[in-house]
Design a protein that fits this description.
about 375 residues, alpha+beta, 10 strands
């Protein structure tokens, strides 16, 4: 469960993750605002009072129609089943791209799946909006204007060749203009597959006359790249699993060895664990890419210790949140990698229940204590 804070950070399972500034979030917001501002009238998709009742109420915007693509508002005699199309993923995409600030690997995989689904629409003749099929006569001539017509037609059409001709993308072609008196939408339709650029295609793939400079597919591809590559600046790590695992991170090892060299942090061989842990909590550690021993990457170690899902992007730095004496002792033992360790002050490290101090050193320690 995540909890958003006032800063550019997100609380995840007790860890404080600084959120990157993702460019795609602003681009998605701009795309959503744009397609929501384009009315059904502008894209000539309002339904018809002459058609079936299920077409009487179309979504009022391009976004609404995109979200129902192929599903609810099927054209009469459509060959599509209504069980697939972009409506399956649009709401979920909106939730992820609009509201999420931190992305873990499972969420990235969902975005990749959505991206692939939308790419699949382009390869499917029935679902690709560029290939929405309409028919008209092969040849015709506009006749006289109709008066008191009870239909939508404004002009009589003299059909010269009634062989059906397929057109793709949108119904507002030159035949529609000749018959109904409404201007042709150039570029929205074509007599060849995969070449028309109707409003739904512009929303998905971008470009065209509606002012959509970047389509949803491009934004998704850029989001996937950013989430994979843009680093998380910092994680405030709550240690919830073996603190000793952090010993494999070079920047942590370096600081622990530095603490072991400080005589002011020891009473004889006994370390001042609480003071040491406090010092580490005030430090910022570079994550890096290589670990000591090379068995797990520093990023994997951090997600393991903090009980976090896998993070797809790099992590620049991390800090330690609550880090007490017990965790400090475990970390020291993992760093030195042995039970007997001689300090710079000539004493042997003495952590109860963890280290072994040679017997002669124990005797010497008692003798020094008696002569004080």
């Amino acid at each position: 469960m995540t909890k958003r804070t006032r800063k550019s950070t997100v609380e995840v399972n007790g860890n404080t993750i600084e959120a990157p500034q993702y460019k795609f979030k602003a681009e998605y917001a701009a795309w959503r605002k744009k397609v929501d501002s384009i009315s059904s009238e502008k894209i000539a998709s309002t339904g018809s009072k002459f058609a079936d009742a299920n077409r009487a109420k179309y979504p009022a915007t391009l976004y609404g129609q995109l979200s129902h693509h192929v599903n609810k508002y099927l054209r009469d005699n459509s060959s599509n089943t209504g069980d697939d199309g972009i409506f399956e993923v649009l709401d979920a995409i909106n939730e992820l791209l609009k509201d999420k600030e931190i992305f873990f690997t499972p969420e990235l995989k969902i975005l990749i799946k959505f991206r692939d689904n939308i790419k699949g629409i382009e390869d499917d003749e029935k679902l690709n909006p560029r290939n929405t099929l309409f028919t008209r006569p092969t040849r015709w001539k506009r006749g006289e204007q109709l008066k008191n017509s009870k239909t939508r037609a404004k002009y009589k059409i003299d059909v010269l060749d009634d062989k059906p001709q397929s057109i793709y993308g949108h119904y507002r072609d030159n035949y529609f203009e000749d018959k109904y008196g409404e201007p042709e939408k150039k570029g929205w339709w074509s007599t060849e597959k995969n070449t028309a650029n109707p409003p739904l295609a512009q929303a998905i793939y971008g470009k065209g006359d509606l002012g959509i400079t970047k389509g949803l597919l491009t934004i998704l591809e850029e989001a996937i790249t950013e989430i994979s590559e843009k680093p998380i600046p910092n994680i405030g790590l709550r240690v919830q699993r073996n603190a000793g695992s952090l010993a494999a991170i070079p920047s942590v090892r370096k600081q622990v060895f530095a603490l072991l060299k400080r005589s002011d942090l020891f009473v004889g061989g006994k370390p001042k664990l609480r003071q040491m842990s406090s010092i580490l909590q005030n430090m910022e550690f570079v994550v890096g890419e290589k670990s000591f021993g090379g068995r797990a990457s520093p990023k994997k170690i951090i997600t393991f210790v903090g009980k976090l899902d896998s993070i797809p992007s790099p992590i620049e730095t991390f800090t330690l949140k609550t880090f007490g004496p017990t965790a400090m002792a475990s970390l020291i033992m993992a760093v030195i990698g042995k039970k007997t360790y001689k300090l710079k002050n000539d004493n042997y490290l003495d952590i109860k229940g963890k280290t072994e101090v040679p017997k002669e050193e124990v005797k010497k320690s008692w003798m020094e204590h008696l002569w004080r």
